[in-house]
Amino acid sequence: MAADGFELQAQLFRALSHPVRLQILNVLARTEACVCHLNAALNRPQPYVSQQLATLREAGLVSDRREGTLIYYRLADGRIAGWLERGRELVKNGDGNPIPFPPAPPEVVPHCPCPHCQR
Amino acid sequence: MAADGFELQAQLFRALSHPVRLQILNVLARTEACVCHLNAALNRPQPYVSQQLATLREAGLVSDRREGTLIYYRLADGRIAGWLERGRELVKNGDGNPIPFPPAPPEVVPHCPCPHCQR
DNA sequence: CGAATACGTGCAATAGTTGGAATATGCAAG
DNA sequence: CTTGCATATTCCAACTATTGCACGTATTCG
């Protein structure tokens, strides 16, 4: 309960200190997505994706919306995407500085059953 | 070696996911400081401060400069302070939203032997 | 040289994170 | 109510971080 600002800010950063969670946020930066979409886009087991989403949700970074059996996730705050993007500029690569960021995954993912991919 | 951008970015966030390290960066955001100054300003044992500084140094967030027996630390990149400041706007406090950030420590700290405080 | 001061490092006990597997829940259709 | 699908939670072993403390290193001064 004695959580001062630094402790809260540290909790936010802890939620961000995981490559798969950053990958998820990278997908959500362009569009909301259901769990099955992230499951297919990241090629990770569904319970694993759900766990990371729970961490992001508890940190207040994403929010969710149910639509039938699907649950769509999106960034909780419009400023998050731009802030993360600016954070990338600060990443250094050991000796040199070029930052090998993988391309964002395609918006339509094969074998994803969600309405957004089935068209 | 198989460190993609997300892994590197996660390492950056991991270095930031600690309240004492955030406190150190908060001091360094206004001025460079020697270890003994941080030691006094944060009221933490010197080896403990050194360890946190080592973590920040390995993450590329701070750089250091020796001057006699003192070692001065500063933010490694001018954009870091502003980016951290903007990150605070995203911190939510459980239910409500007000963010109780402690005030920045004073520039001159009692019992600090560094030239900046002895005047 | 030796002593004093400012920092850094190594170690060990404790605590927290990770990621896979099994299982549980919640909704819709039949 | 049962089945089936989408998603969530729980459990657990391996791994990693935290933090206090003793000791090591580097620089200056006498």
In the CATH hierarchy, the third-tier topology of chain A is known as Arc Repressor Mutant, subunit A
The tally of strands of chain A reads 3
Uncertain stretches of 5 or more adjacent residues of chain A: none
State the assembly state of the protein chains: homodimer
Structural class of chain A: alpha+beta
Largest interface: A-B, 38 and 38 residues
- Give the overall shape of chain A, derived from the CA principal axes: globular
Broad CATH class of chain A = Mainly Alpha
* Distance between the amino and carboxyl termini of chain A: 49 Å
With strands numbered from the N-terminus, the spatial order across the biggest sheet of chain A is: 1-3-2
The sequence of SSEs of chain A as H and E is HHEHHEEH
**Biggest β-sheet of chain A, characterized?**
3 strands, antiparallel
Gyration radius of chain A, rounded:
15 Å
Q: Domain count of chain A, please report it.
A: 1
Strand-residue fraction of chain A? 5-15%
- Give the CATH architecture of chain A: Orthogonal Bundle
